[in-house]
Amino acid sequence: MLESLKQNLQDSPSLRCIVIGSNDKVFSAGHDLKELTSKTGQDYHKTVFDVCSQVMLAIRNMPVPVIAEVKGVAAAAGCQLVAATDIAIASEEAMFSTPGARVGLFCSTPGIEVARAANQKTAAYMLFTGNFITANGKCF
Q1: InterPro entries, alphabetically (predicted)?
Q2: Residue 73: which of 94, 57, 59 has the closest Cα?
Q3: Using one digit for the tens of pLDDT, what is the confidence trace for 45-75?
Q4: CB of 126 within 8 A of CB of 95?
Q5: Would you say residue 139 lies in a domain?
Q6: How many helices (H) and strands (E) does the chain have?
Q7: What whole-number distance in Å separates Cα of residue 74 and Cα of residue 41?
Q8: Residue at 1 is within a domain
Q9: What is the pLDDT of residue 140?
Q10: Could you give the percent of the chain with pLDDT greater than 90?
Q11: CA–CA distances in Å: residue 30 to residues 11, 17, 129
Q12: Domains identified in the chain, total number
């Protein structure tokens, strides 16, 4: 995704905004946890999270507005991505979560973007419970 964002900017000097969306029922579920096993090792895990951080910083530093168009579930790093954008437009079916708390993990990486984008109580609820919030009445 990082390279795609950079390439879009280079290929389109008249680009006015970037819209990130999905036609699936899931906007983004975040990292593929099947890839983050003890078999792949800590170096691989570090690379995955480093690239994720680079993507989020690139989104925040784009010279044009970045808009998330969310029609389904945005979880974990997917929720982080939505929170990193300048504007999030969510359908009535959109749902957001940072589910790490459900398995005993505090997801600090998405927590940074969510805490910046959502109000304090909504961010705390999401990060401490892992429960979904809907787009109805909530926004980033």
Answers
A1: ClpP/crotonase-like_dom_sf, Enoyl-CoA_hydra/iso, Mitochondrial_ECH-domain
A2: 94
A3: 888 888 888 888 889 888 999 999 999 999 9
A4: no
A5: no
A6: 5, 7
A7: 26
A8: no
A9: 57
A10: 34
A11: 27, 23, 18
A12: 1
Dig out the tokens for 82 from the structure: 């939505």
Max alpha carbon distance in the chain (Å)?
46
* Residue 2 within a domain: no
Domain span at residue 121? 18-30+39-134
Residue 129 covered by a domain: yes
CATH code for position 105: 3.90.226.10
pTM: 0.83
Residue pair 133/97 in contact (Cβ under 8 Å)? The answer is yes
Question: Which is nearest to 19 in space by CA: 6, 7, 30, 5?
Answer: 5
Phi and psi (nearest 5°) for 29?
Answer: -95, 5
User: What is residue 67's predicted lDDT score, i.e. its pLDDT?
Assistant: 96
